[in-house]
Specification:
two-stranded antiparallel ribbon; alpha/beta; 223 residues; 8-stranded mixed β-sheet; 6 helices; single chain
Length: 223
């Protein structure tokens, strides 16, 4: 797996935090508003940010649709998460059309929680279209596929985070359970305060705090 540039982690995490800001409106969403995608610029680069879970409908109709399916048009990805795939496919064409309208520039993909898992599948689907993200950072993603998906993603820059403290890891990054699910190797493990409970350590403020406190080695910006 190719690692996404480390110096992009904090600004992309902030882009994810901005998706939760009161009053903000998504650039793209589906008809039933289960998936919300925001457009911004990070270091002058178009950035597509998938928002995490915000209400009970998303839990029921997306997060808990944990079965796996193989999509004929994306068979290279193998069996993937039903709910997350549904969400990405609902907004994929409008995002592609927008990027084409601005000349198909390099762009970043990111997301937090449910949105992190969706950003991973988005990167895979966009690779199939011939236009993968220049870099993808997924913050606290649940598992969204198996070994075939990892193999398909192995040649694009992709990284993710897992927060941890003395009480253990963010459990969201460990689910769904079962031998057919795989997580991307080599997460960036972020230490958070021991006082952070199961919910707190998953939220984007904990991710940003962990990134802010960790060392930031130099890395090239993707072209």
């Amino acid at each position: 797996m190719i690692q996404a540039p480390r110096e992009l982690a904090l600004p992309l995490a902030q882009a994810c935090a901005d998706t939760y800001a009161p009053g903000t409106q998504p650039q793209w969403q589906d008809n039933v508003r289960l998936v919300h995608v925001y457009l911004s610029l990070v270091n002058g680069v178009h950035t597509v940010a998938f928002e995490g879970t915000t209400d009970w409908q998303e839990w029921v109709f997306s997060d808990f649709m944990v079965g796996q399916l193989i999509l004929p048009e994306y068979v290279e990805c193998g069996a993937i998460h039903v709910g997350f795939a549904r969400d990405v496919l609902a907004v994929l064409k409008p995002i592609q059309e927008y990027l084409a309208s601005v000349g198909n520039p390099p762009y970043y993909a990111t997301g937090h929680s449910k949105g992190a898992s969706e950003s991973i599948l988005f990167a895979a689907f966009m690779k199939k279209s011939g236009f993968p993200p220049a870099a993808t950072w997924a913050f606290e993603p649940a598992r969204c596929g198996g070994q075939a998906l990892l193999d398909y993603l192995s040649d694009i820059p992709l990284s993710w985070t897992r927060t941890t403290n003395a009480e253990g890891d963010d459990l969201v990054t460990r689910v769904p359970f079962g031998p057919s699910w795989r997580e991307i190797p080599d997460p960036l493990v972020l230490e958070v305060p021991a006082s952070d409970d199961l919910a707190q350590k998953h939220r984007i403020p904990a991710v940003i705090a962990g990134l802010s406190q960790s060392a930031t080695p130099s890395a090239p910006t993707p072209q």
